[in-house]
Design brief:
This protein is α/β, with parallel strands linked by helices and 284 residues long. The chain has helices at 23-38, 42-45, 56-78, 94-101, 107-125, 130-133, 146-165, 176-196, 245-252, 264-277; strands spanning 13-15, 136-139, 142-145, 203-210, 214-220, 224-228, 239-244. One of its GO terms (molecular function) is metal ion binding.
Amino acid sequence: MQLSPHYDFPIIVSIDGSPSDQCVPLVRQRRRLEDLLRGLSDEQWNAPSRCGTWTIKDVVVHLAGVNRFWQASAAAGIAGTPTRLLGGFDPAATPSMMVDSLGSITSAAALEMFVSSNDALLATVADLDDTAWTVVAESPMGHVSLRLVMQHALWDSWVHERDIMLPLGLTPAVEADEVRSCLQYAAALGAALSIGLGQPITGWLSVQAANPSVIFAIEVTNLVAISELADGVVSVTASCLQGDAVQLAEALSIRVPLASSAPHEWHALLGRLATAFDTPSEAG
C-alpha cells in the first residue's frame, strides 16, 4: 500500500537519546556488512535471502539504492530544504521494481554500488554537531529529525544484514547500541504507520527486553513518543512486551512470529505494519 507521510508539525515521532547517538552504530554496521560481503563466494551472492524471491545480491542492490535516498534526504535537511519525495511511496512494490530495473549485474558491481553509496551517505553526516543532527529531514514516516532518519537507515540495513547472514548459516554480530536502536525504531515505526493508516493503537505500551537490556515506554496519541526507562521500571498499566531483544526486534520487523502470549496491542500494532508492507504479520 502507499504511504501517507506526516510532513506537518509537530513531528510525528520522538525517541529519547543523544542527538548524535546514531552515528557510531550507523558507520560500524555498514562497514561490517561491507567486510562480510567482500568474503562471499559467487555462489553465496546468488543464494536466497530471507526476503521473498530476492537473492543476497538483490538485497545488496536494494541497500545501495535506498542509501541514495538517505543521502539525499540528509543533505536536503542539513541545507534547510527537507525533501517530500515519499508521498505515495509503496514499501512493498517500489523496492522490488528498483531491484528489477537494474537487471543482471555482477556481484562485484553490486558490492561497488553498496560501498560507494555508503561512502556518500556517511560523508554527508560525518562531523555533524548535535544541532545538525536535530534538523528536519524526510523518512518514510514523514518529516522527522535527521537522527531518526539515520535510525531508520540503521534499522533497515541491520535487518537486511540478518536477511543475508542467517540463510548462509552465519552468525550476525550483536552490538548493544545497534539492537537498542533497531528495537526502538521498529516499535516506533509500527506505531506511526498505525496513525497513518487511520487505525492508531493509542495509549501506553512498553518493552522490557534482555540481551542486551532495552527498556522503554511508548505513548501513542496522534504522535508517537518513546521514553527510555531505568531497569525494572515499567508501568503496570502499559502493555509490556517482554523477551530477548534481538528476537523482539526481528518480530517487530516482521521477520519472525511474535509470541502468541504477547499483549494483544502489540499483535494489533504488528498487523498495521504488515498491512503497510503487504507482508503477513506472522512471517517466519
